[in-house]
Amino acid sequence: MTPNRSPMMPSVPTATGSRKRVPLEAHIMSKCPDSKDCLHDLILPAMQRVADKVDFKLSYIGSTSDKDDSVECKHGPPECLGNMIELCAAEIYPDPKIYLGFTMCLTREYARIPDRELVQDCALEHGIDFGTINACVSRDDGYGLSLLRESVQRTQKAGVKFSCTVRF
Q: How many other C-beta atoms are found inside a 10 Å radius of the C-beta of residue 28?
């Protein structure tokens, strides 16, 4: 039996006969106008067509230090905080329909990130609990920062330097 194939995204059969999801990753910066355009013009339309066929992940561009746990973001500390907010949303609400919608809501007004009112409005719009996101970002053990550091290191390992870069 031949597996069903989409002309846009072929299915990959596994040993059990089920379909393996194809990885799709966008590397962005929360306060970058290019990320806004990429998410709106490329990622959202693609996800509307192939969400059930891909394993989607947002990763963030920045730099890390070997000397400590710090992370630097191109658009400064507010961008690092915005990246952590978006990463916490993805961690707590792993369904891309939820966290990608939330991220796109924030990105529509990227210059205001991480404005509390903007984050609260987008959280409300997408069924996300603001308090839970806030707690994730501000945990005493640095959990939000560790999510950002891991994400930036993933981007660095992939050799990605420009926002928005899409890999599959």
A: 27
Backbone angles phi, psi at 166, to 5 degrees: -115, 130
| Residue 17, SS3 per DSSP | coil
* Interstrand relation of 19-20 and 22-28 (parallel, antiparallel or unpaired): unpaired
Residue pair 97/118 in contact (Cβ under 8 Å)? The answer is no
Encoded tokens for 126? 């997408």
Q: Over the stretch 37-65, which tens digit does the pLDDT of each residue have?
A: 999 999 999 999 999 999 999 999 999 98
Residue 43 three-state SS: helix
The whole model's pTM is what? Answer: 0.87
Closest residue by Cα to residue 119 from 159, 78, 59, 155: 78
* Structure confidence by residue, pLDDT tens digits, 88-117: 999 999 999 999 999 999 999 999 999 999
Contact in structure between 154 and 23 (CB atoms under 8 Å): no
Task: Give the three-state DSSP class for 27.
Answer: strand
Backbone φ and ψ for 30, nearest 5 degrees, come out as: -60, -25
Q: What's the residue count for the chain? A: 168
Biggest CA-to-CA distance, the chain = 55
